[in-house]
Amino acid sequence: ASSHILEEAGAGPIMESTTDDQQHTVMFDSDNIQQTGGGTHDSSSRWQKATYDAKSIRQKITFSGRKFDVKTLPVDLYRVYETIKIRSGEEYALTNVFMIRTAIELHRAWHNTLLTAKILQQLKDKYKLHLAWELGVVKLKFHIEDGLYELQYKVPYDYDSEFQDLYMRIAIAYLDEHITVHQGLIYQDETKAGKHTAKTGLFIRAFPGRLVVYPFEAATCAVIFFGGDWYDFGVTALTGFVSGLIEYLLVTIGGSAKLMVDVIVGVSTGLIASLFYRYDGEHTCLPAVFLGTLYWFFYGTAFVLGILEIISGELQTGVVRFLAVAVKTFILSLGTSFGMQIVLDSPKEVWFDTVGNCGTIDLSVQWWRIPLYLACSASALAQYRFPHVDYWRGLSVQLVGYEVQFQIFQALMQRQSRDFLDTASSNTAGAIAAVVFASILQRTVDNVAYYYHARVLQRHKGKFSPFGEFCYKMSEIYIRITNCLGFGKKNDVVYLRMAAKLKEQREEMENPAHSRTEIMLTLEEEIVFIEAIVQAEDLNIWALLMPTLYQLVPGSLIARLWFNTIFLPPLDSECKVIDGTDYNFVKPVQSASHAVFESLLVTAVSLALGTLIGFGVVEYGTYILTKLFCCKNENQPSTSDPNASADSIRTINLRKSSRNFFSHTINENNPSSDLYTIDENDPASDSERNTEDTNVNEEAGFDDDNITETNNDLLQPLL
């Protein structure tokens, strides 16, 4: 393929991109190219980028042609691969393998079946695969070649924000044809091996380094969430460390020993805390110690995901998820009760007597409330294996959600003390604030990162505007500083050095007087380069939101419900005289547990609704602002085929934005529903939409790198 810039008298620049079987010419009026927003959006330089030879450095490099070793696949998947390869070819078979591996790792990393199905559907439509799937709570089923083959996998919970983001970026890079299927599969293997994770991230990714996080999270949660004091902080740190040791030991043993983690952790927590209560003055707040220690094992996010699945129509998955987490929490609570029984003579009386030791600190008047919450949130990010270099992103989203939730609850607590509206309102508002802020942060990060990736991947010729040069320089300085501190990835600095070398080699190759005919990379350089391409994809907003929802959701509320079931609350009696006779009236034993269960439902549902409303605010807020402040004729180019170009760019934008929303369910394998649910007024038929999606990059007439990297800036202004 070849591309060149033409100039005609009296007209703007023309970009002509010629391939073997088609030719597209893109024309736009240079008089309408202006800088908007006080220079914060470099429109002229970006359209210049669109005309820059239509090729990034990726398309100038001759790759080594590394092949993915299919023999490393599981036996069953390898057997299916070999059969499909004979029927439909190697690339088609490998794409099936890529999709299955992507589904497994995304499911393991975030357990969000609705959003995992989104990216799977887009890959299926793009490459026309005969693949269907059933994403359950822990069991995945794949029906290959219209059900000719079926593979089943059991994928347990293992929340992982870094892998969640990386596997999504890998899938998007392959979807947008920035990498080949072999490169995508190899990159997945390298990701699992830790080659694309910073050294500090590797330390807390697995045991024994992970043991550092257990006591820190347990102790901070006991004070900030469960009414403990600084004495309870120390006790909970000890019980948290012991719980981490127990899990480390049992996981290392493996087999059926892993099934005993929850029971033994619960027993050890109840035993140690009860020993402190009995032999150290009986001033321990046992609920704070228990709930803080077990916070790590409460999958509170699953409650909200279950509600979201029920709302989205996946009733079976949602209900099973909700009940499964409830049973797991009961096992932890029962084990803790066994530990109390070993040490205490009357566990029930102690459970209710110790309540007086709780809530002795009024957090609303303490200056250290927010710093302590940030420390607790940092431990949650560590539990989620969040990249250290990006902690500022996760902490800012968590703080916004928490502070909105806390302040609204404090304002409504006295006025609505007899109902749950204060809880529902504060949770809904906190979730909305977190989603909106995370969306703004994601868009801001992507826009700033655009300049860096456009420069180092040579997707832009010449200099940016002053704002663009500032963004690039700040990105480069940030990468170098974080690497000096040990938080960043070494490959980022390596590629910065490579970028200058690649730029020089490209200039040599494009110089007719120079003998260079190709750009070759060593194996190590190719690995670094592929990493740079994958990292240039958009940030996954759910990598920011999942730890935030974890901090907002009611994982501990259902534990209180089970404790009230194990230790029945004392009867509240009231003596009344009726016709000269004394009567004792008592409240039902179940009232307390029912109150906790109702609070659990109110909290889980309100957070789920807040998440949905938040995405609605982002979606329609962006649409309204775009209509009010963006002029289509000035900001979008026209082509020789205007409809094709507009539809193609629009399809790409819808495909990107739709990955964040829940409008597509896991059993709804309708190709058109995935891309067009957010625009119900589109008159195009399903067949037209599928055709547009299949050849998006060819129709647009641009290099695929240019379109996918600039559409956020050009067509979707900052909210």
Tell me the fraction of residues in β-strands, as a range: 5-15%
Q: What value does the Rg take, in angstroms?
A: 28 Å
Instruction: Trace the largest sheet across and list its strands.
Output: 1-2-3-11
Terminal-residue CA separation: 38 Å
> Helical amount among residues, as a percent range?
55-70%
Q: Topology, please?
A:
Layout: E1 2-6, E2 14-18, E3 23-27, H1 43-50, E4 61-62, H2 75-88, H3 90-110, H4 113-127, E5 131-135, E6 139-144, E7 149-154, H5 161-175, H6 181-192, H7 199-205, H8 213-224, H9 230-253, H10 261-279, H11 286-294, H12 300-311, H13 315-343, H14 347-353, H15 369-383, H16 391-413, H17 421-456, H18 466-485, H19 490-510, E8 519-520, H20 523-535, H21 541-552, H22 557-566, E9 573-578, E10 581-586, H23 590-629, H24 632-635, E11 638-639, H25 642-658, H26 671-676, H27 686-694, H28 696-700, H29 704-715
How would you portray this structure in words?
This protein is α+β, with helices and mostly antiparallel strands and 719 residues long. The protein is built from 29 helices and 11 strands. It has helices spanning 43-50, 75-88, 90-110, 113-127, 161-175, 181-192, 199-205, 213-224, 230-253, 261-279, 286-294, 300-311, 315-343, 347-353, 369-383, 391-413, 421-456, 466-485, 490-510, 523-535, 541-552, 557-566, 590-629, 632-635, 642-658, 671-676, 686-694, 696-700, 704-715, and strands spanning 2-6, 14-18, 23-27, 61-62, 131-135, 139-144, 149-154, 519-520, 573-578, 581-586, 638-639. The strands form 4 sheets. It has a 4-stranded antiparallel β-sheet with strand order 1-2-3-11. The chain has a 3-stranded antiparallel β-sheet with strand order 5-6-7, covered by helices on one side. It has a two-stranded parallel sheet with strand order 4-8. Strand 6 (139-144) and strand 7 (149-154) form a beta hairpin. Helix 5 (161-175) packs antiparallel against helix 21. It is elongated, with a radius of gyration of 28 Å.
